[in-house]
Amino acid sequence: MKTKCGFVSIIGEPNAGKSSLMNVLLETKLSIVTPKPQTTRKNVIGIYTKENVQIIFVDTPGIINPNYELHSSMMKNVNESLSGADVITAITDVSRIINKFDKFEKLILGKIQNLNQPKILLLNKIDLLNDIKETLPIIDRIEKYKIFNEIIPVSVIYSNNIDRYLDVLIKYLPENPFMYEPELLSTEDERFFVSEIIREVLFNELKEEIPYSTEVLINSFKERENGKWFISADIIVERDSQKVIIIGSKGAKLKRIGMIARANIEAHLGKEIFLKLFVKVRPKWRNNKALLKSLGYK
Ligand SMILES: Nc1nc2c(ncn2[C@@H]2O[C@H](COP(=O)(O)OP(=O)(O)O)[C@@H](O)[C@H]2O)c(=O)[nH]1
Ligand SMILES: [Mg+2]
Question: pLDDT for 202-213, tens place per residue?
C-alpha cells in the first residue's frame, strides 16, 4: 500500500485557534491553549498517523510584528516551519477578520503568497457567526489573491468540518514513507511539555502583561527511589514587582500555581510528581539574546 507523509505548518495570527486545531486533530492536548494571544512561543510538533497517512503538524507562534528579541525568535520559528512544510495551513478567526483585513493581508497573505507549497485556509470560529453565509464575501475577497488551493470554514472547538479539512490536506500530502513510528505523538521531550504546562498555568492565573514577562526553565527532572518524579523549575520574570505578585501574600499565589501545575503535569505524564517552583528575576530577558538562547530560543 502506498503511504503518504509530510510536514504541515499551521500558521496564523495570535488567537486564531492554531494550537486548538492541532489538539483536535491529535485528539490529545499537546499544545497549550489559552484565551490570551501569543501563548505559543516555540514550534510544537504533533504527529498524526492513521492507516496509510502520517502528518507531522507544526504548531507555531502567532504571526506579529516583533517588538522584542523574543518576538523575533518566535517569528524565526514560524519561518522555519514554513520552509520545511509540504503543505501550509493558515487559520484565521473569521468573526474578527472583517475588521482587521488589512492586517491579515499584510501579515498572513504577505508572508505566504510567494511560497510554492499547496496552501489551505481555515476560516475558524464559524460557531460565533449568526449565519454561515457571512463567510461568503470573505471567501470571495480572499479568493481574488489566488493564494489558497482551498478555503474551508470550520469550527475547531466543535470539530465542525475538520474531517473535510483532513480529506483535503491528505489530497495535497506527498507520497512518502512514514518518518516516525505510528505510535509516536511528538518529537518534543517531556521536559518541554512540562515547562509548557507550567507556562499555561501562568497564563491562566496571572493578569495583564505578567504572563508575557514570564518564562519557565526546568532545572531538574528525575525519578526518585520511591518512584515519584522530582521536577524543579524556575519561573523567570523581568522585575521584582512581578516576582512579588507571583509569590503572592504568604506565598499563596505560587502555592496555587504549583498545585494546578502539579495536577496538570501528573495528568499529562500519568504518574505522581513532586514539583518545586522558584521565582527568579532576570531583567529584560525578552531582549537578551544570550539569555534567550539559554532558554531554548533561536
Ligand atoms: N468560539 C470558538 N473559539 C475557538 C475556536 N477555536 C479556538 N477557539 C478559542 O480561541 C482561543 C485561542 O485558541 P488557541 O488555540 O490558543 O489559538 P492560537 O493562539 O492560534 O494557538 C482559545 O480560547 C480557544 O478556546 C472555535 O472554533 N470557536
Ligand atoms: Mg497557540
Answer: 999 998 889 999
Q: Locate 253 and state its grid cell.
A: 499565589
Question: Which atom of ligand 1 approaches the CA of 160 most closely?
Answer: 27
DSSP state of 155: B
Contacts of 177 (CB under 8 A, 6+ apart): 3, 5
pLDDT score for 231: 96
154 alpha carbon – ligand 1 mean position (Å): 12
Give the span between the Cα atoms of 91 and 268, in whole angstroms. Answer: 27
| Exposure b/e, 75-102, CB count within 10 A at least 16 = b | bebbeebbeebbbbbbbbbbbbbeeeee
Ligand 1 lined by 60 (C-beta under 6 Å):
no
Query: What is the per-residue pLDDT for 50?
Result: 96
Other CB atoms within 10 A of residue 254 CB:
19
**Angle 245-251-257 from CA coordinates, rounded to 5°:** 75
Q: Which of 10, 11, 13, 20 to mutate to test the pocket of ligand 1 (most atoms within 8 A of CB)?
A: 20
Ligand 1 test: best mutation among 33, 38, 123, 196, most atoms within 8 Å of CB? 33
Q: What is the pTM of this model?
A: 0.91
- Nearest Cα neighbor of 153 from 85, 97, 232, 80 is 97
- Domains along the sequence of the chain with CATH: 4-172 (3.40.50.300), 190-294 (3.30.300.20)
What span, in angstroms and rounded, lies between the C-alpha atoms of 180 and 266?
26
At residue 276, the 3 state secondary structure works out as: strand
pLDDT higher at 235 or 269: 235
Strand partners, 89: 10, 120
pLDDT digits (tens, 9 = 90+) for 233-253: 999 999 999 999 999 999 999
